[in-house]
Amino acid sequence: MDAALTQLSADRGFGSLSLREVAREAGIAPTSFYRHFAELDELGLALVDEGGVALRQLMRQARKRIARDGGSAISTSVETFMEYLGNNANLFRLMLRERTGVSTTFRTAVKAEIDHFVTELADDLRRIAREQNTPLSDARLVAEAMVTLVFNQGAEALDATPEECEQLKSKLKTELRMILVGSQTLAKCQ
Q1: Does residue 181 carry a pLDDT above 90?
Q2: Is the distance from CB of 74 to CB of 169 less than 8 angstroms?
Q3: DSSP 8-state secondary structure symbol assigned to residue 158
Q4: 2-7 long-range contacts, Cβ below 8 Å, gap at least 24?
Q5: Does the N-terminal or the C-terminal CB of the chain have fewer CB atoms within 10 Å?
Q6: Distance CA 155, CA 24 (A)
Q7: CA distance between the termini of the chain
């Protein structure tokens, strides 16, 4: 899996990898590849799964930090996400590309990972709204908007300079707050 990731870049997607290249990078014979995966696409799906799981685990840790230490949930979450991007750029690029790629199997896998993020965020939003006795219009819809926004800004952050990344983080925090406040205002009007 690491061998495949090292070959991915801003200019090279998963679809351009060959089994021989991945095996060579991993230091194994091409036939040994089949001890681990039935085909190259199975490797790609495992990478998508790893990317989603790693990000969800980081976000869970961020939520625990927020619960323990306080602070802004949005700010901590954005900082955690950007840290993930810095450490997992190729994994995130894979998810971005395959989200709209030609393979139905990959699109479905990425959609499932995004749905996991949305579901967990919607649950958190509902819990926080109850704890703070704050109305929220539609937690699932708010979570979908937030996750979509974060993914899109993440795509921009991949090629950004450190200064541009700081600006993107600030902008993203503001946009996420706008979505949340808008949902709370809409709930009060209903």
Answers
A1: yes
A2: no
A3: T
A4: 2/26, 3/27, 4/43, 4/44, 4/47, 5/47, 5/90, 5/91, 5/94, 6/90
A5: C
A6: 29
A7: 49
Residue owning tokens 């902008």: 171
* 0.85 exceeded by pTM: yes
> What pLDDT, on a 0 to 100 scale, did the predictor assign at position 15?
86
Instruction: Tell me which residue range forms the domain holding 181.
Output: 2-189
Reported confidence tier of residue 12, pLDDT bands at 50, 70, 90: confident
E strand or H helix at 92, and its extent?
A: helix 89-99
CATH, residue 172: 1.10.357.10
Q: Where does residue 131 rank: exposed (0-12), middle (13-18), buried (19+ CB within 10 A)?
A: exposed
Q: What contacts 24+ positions apart, CB below 8 Å, involve 95-99?
A: 95/48, 95/51, 95/52, 96/151, 96/154, 96/155, 97/13, 97/14, 98/14, 98/44, 98/48, 99/151
Residue 176, both tokens: 């996420």
In 3D space, the residue among 114, 106, 110, 87 whose CA is nearest the CA of residue 15 turns out to be 106
Residue 152 CB coordination number (10 Å): 13
The total number of structural domains in the chain stands at 1
CA distance 96 to 114: 11
